[in-house]
Specification:
Helices cover about 25% and strands about 25% of the residues. The protein is α+β, with helices and mostly antiparallel strands and about 190 residues long.
Length: about 190
Amino acid sequence: MIRLVPIVAAVAALALPAAAQDFSEGSEAREWGLFGERKATFAARVADPLCEFTGECAADCGGGDRQVVLIRQADDAMVFPLKNAQTAFNGAVADLAPYCGQTVDVDGLLIEDDFVGATNVYLVQRIRPEGGEWIRANRWTDDWAERHPDAAGPGPWFRRDPRILSEIEDEGYLGLGPEVDEAFIADWF
């Protein structure tokens, strides 16, 4: 049994991930209290992941219809900006796509969690184009409002989004059909 302890310790040490590079210096990101989050600011090229993986490239990173990635200058790592600075979990494409192919500085939260398999997941809060000033990454709801002028009104955007309302009409609130919704609502409310 005593002989197993050094072997188990050695295997455990090999299984631990290598210490990630620290990008927190100079970051002014607002912490969210998410598991595995760290403040991170770095320079990166805004890119289309489909282009990076397959060579199928759109001139403008898909014009906002594709996810974008950040190719970090320090280590050439592909970082996935899945959220912007808004309190809702809105995507970062609207904020980053205008910089397709350009190098920008970004500031936000980097999520690294081996337990759930999150690697290089990024919540971008600010963007600074080369030679420019910091810009808050919060364009998503403004872009949504421009695309859906007939959906103006009070409350959160998702309560008025035509795509969401269409899905609810077809599939019900529970995703099981309007008939199931009727029975659920009658039973619970």
